[in-house]
Amino acid sequence: MSAFGSLSRAMFKGFVRDKMSVFFAILFPMFFIVIFGIVFAGGGTSKQKVIEVGSVPLIQELPQQARDGLAQVVEFESGQTLDAALESVRKGDVAAAVEQQGDTLVVHYSNADQTAAATVQGVFSALIDNANLAAAGVTTPQFTLQPQQVEDQSLKTMQYVAPQMIAYGVSIGAVFGAALTLITWREKKLLRRLRLAPVSTSTVVGSRVAVSLGVALLQLVIFVGFSMLLGLKLVGAWYMTIPLVLAGTLSFLAIGLLVGAVAKTAEGGSGLANLITLPMAFLSGAFIPVEVAPQWMQVVSKFLPLGYLVDGMKDVMVRGQGPSAALIPILVLLAFAAVITVIATRLFKWDSA
Fold this sequence. Notes:
Elements: H1 3-17, H2 19-39, E1 48-52, H3 57-60, H4 64-71, E2 74-78, H5 82-91, E3 96-101, E4 104-109, H6 114-135, H7 158-187, H8 190-196, H9 201-229, H10 241-262, H11 266-283, H12 295-301, H13 305-317, H14 327-347
Parallel strand pairs: 1-2, 1-3
Antiparallel strand pairs: 3-4
C-alpha cells in the first residue's frame, strides 16, 4: 500500500477509534437535529398568557368569532389586581397584563422576553385597529390580507432545520478533527518522525484532506438519512449539497489547521476550536436566523464560511433553486480555504520546541 493510502487509513482508524471525535462529529449534531426538530415542529406560535385586569369591555364584548380567533394566540386569565398582574409579568409568568382606561387599552409587558412582547403588542394593535374600523362604521374592510407560503406547503419544519444542523456538524467535525490530530501528532513526536521518514509533506497533508472529505461525506449521508426519518424531503438541486459540503469542509479544515498550528496542547486546541466554532455558528445562522441579529453581526457573518454553507444548502434543499445557486457559496468557501491555509502554513511547526 502506498504512503498516501497507509496514512489515510491510519487517520481514519484514529477518527473511528476516538469516541469523542465520533461523538462530536456524528452524534452531537444528530442530537441538535432532534432537539431543533422537536422544538420547532409545531410550526405555529404558542399561546401567550395575558391577564385581564378588571373589566375590559373591548375584549369581553367581542363577537364570538373574533374571540375564537383571539383565543388561538392568547390565553386570558382574570381575577388579579393590577399590582399582582404586573408582578406576574415581571416574573415572566405571563406575557402581558391588559386593562382598559376609558377608550384606551393599556398593555403592560416585559421586554425580558422580546418575542412575547412583540407578539402581544401586535395582537392588541390589530384588535384596536379592528375596533376603530367598527366604530367608524366599516363592517367590510376594503383590503384583506392573504398570506401565502412560497415554498411547498407540504414541507415540514425539519426541512429548514436540517441544512443548518448538517452544516454545523460538518464544521465542527472538520475543525476539531484537523486541529486535534495535528496537535496530538506533534505532542507524540509523530510529525517529527514523518518529517524524517521518506514521506513528502504533500502526502501527509493530502491524506489528512482525503480523510476529512471522506468523513464529511459520511456525515452528510448519515445526517440526511436521519433527517429524512424525521420529515426531511429532498427538493430542488439537493445533490449540490455534495460539492457544497466538500468546499465547506476544506474551509473548516483550514481553520482546524490554523488552530493546530497555533495551539500547543490538545486542551488549548479544543478550547480555541470551541471559541471559533460556537460564535461562528450563532453568527452564521446555524442556530438562529442571522436576519434577526444586529446589523454589525450581519456584517461579521459575511466573513465567516459557515454562513455561506448554511445559505447555499438552504438554497438547494429548501428554496428549490437550481445548481447555479450553489456556485457563489462554493467559490467563497474555496477562496476562504486557500487564504486560511496559506496563513496556517506560515505558522505551522513540526514539533513543539
